[in-house]
Amino acid sequence: MTTRRQFSRFALAALASGTALASGGAFAQGINLAANVDPNGANWGQGFDPSSKTISFDVDSHTPIASPSTIGNIQYALDTYTRMAQAGGWPKVPDTQTLRIGQRGPAVSILRQRLAATGDIANEAGVGETFDTFVQAAVVRFQTRHGILADGIVSTQTFQELNVPVEQRIEQLRVNAARLQELGGDLGDRYILVNIPGAQIEVVDHGRVVQRHTAIVGKVDRPSPLLNSKISEINFNPYWNAPESIVRRDIIPKMQEDPTYLSKFNIRVYDQQGNELPPESVDWNTVDSTKIFLRQDPGDVNSMGFMKINFPNKHAVYMHDTPSQDLFGTNGRFYSSGCVRVQNIRELAAWILQPNGEWPRSRIDQVIRSGERLDVPVEERPSLYFAYVTAWVTDDGMVNFRPDIYNRDAAGLLANDT
């Protein structure tokens, strides 16, 4: 029987030699990568949670990113990409117009060559000037490997990833091999890993990924921090206490534009003594953000949605629900001020609270529906890691890349560097 490691070696060797696997091309076609935008949702084994416009990856992998096999798989990919670079790399795809099914021309021919170079389409299909269903499927595979909404259309972000030079990919693989080596070791029997560049969460139970969640992480100018901690508490139907930085940067400017902003979003204003102030009594053009305190009531428009997950850390960040579910279906989910928004957070909460007993998903749903403010301490605290991984290779030989959103790869920063 062929082991996963043997299959991985074969898949990568096939890519280097230009040999197609039985199921199609080399690497990316070594597994079922029928990715699509699934408006009806998908189970966790398909990669992501139910939501409108959620990216759905039909990749049934239970191996965590932070596993010893990932490091070995990256090394094989490095060898392959190095040989590819020595052979001249891959062509640059002209990005003067969007490419989609039905189009013809020299740009499509170059696109086919580019996709064949990394095994997203079989070598024998890498010729011709027609954007047919084979090219569309190959683009979907490529987009899946790069965390892009897999619509089979080559537009701005797909062009950008297609035209990253092989030498840059080699450096990315090297940095992340070292990063995963540093991150590795005993992460715990039960742990949660937030991969910031991938805006994705893995829930690992005794070495096996049991859930995956799409996430929204920090903006470039308000990055999510790297950290290790343990989940300590879950707040149901929480208040949101607006951080001073958000009051200063975001809320005060919005009040200057729209004096009804606070009332629209059920946000109350308090002075330093804890007395509630009418919003109209505050001069929002001159107010000192350190002299007031803003708190949002629980409810449908609360910035944390219906749930907040707490863990000790010096950055004052947490994980939470969100009323803005549509953002989970977008490319480049870097919208937060450092905290992590979690899609399908109720499933995550049910897993976290399993050792507590008496907290099935049905009870979680009931508490949320009731609107009851409830804080639940976690009895057996799973470990939590915020990590920065922009390249990894699965046991099936699938090479994944994500954008270096915080410019840590370029700086050569490892797991614990700041």
Structure write-up:
By secondary structure, this protein is α+β, with helices and mostly antiparallel strands. Helices cover 29% and strands 18% of the residues. The chain has 11 helices and 19 strands. The two termini are 45 Å apart.
Q: Key terms for this structure?
A:
11 helices; disordered N terminus; Muramoyl-pentapeptide Carboxypeptidase, domain 1; alpha+beta; 19 strands
The Cα radius of gyration reads: 23 Å
Could you say what the CATH architecture of the domain at 4-169 is? Orthogonal Bundle
Strand content is 15-25%
The CATH topology of the domain at 4-169 is given as Muramoyl-pentapeptide Carboxypeptidase, domain 1
Rounded mean pLDDT score: 85
Main beta sheet: 11 strands, mixed
Structural class: alpha+beta
Count up the helices.
11
Q: State the CATH superfamily name of the domain at 4-169.
A: PGBD-like superfamily/PGBD
CATH class category name of the domain at 4-169 = Mainly Alpha
Low-pLDDT windows of residues:
1-59
CA-CA gap between termini = 45 Å
Shape verdict:
globular
How would you spell out the order of helices and strands?
HEEHHHHHEEEEEEHHEEEEEEEHHEEEEH
Helix content: 25-40%
Strand segment count: 19
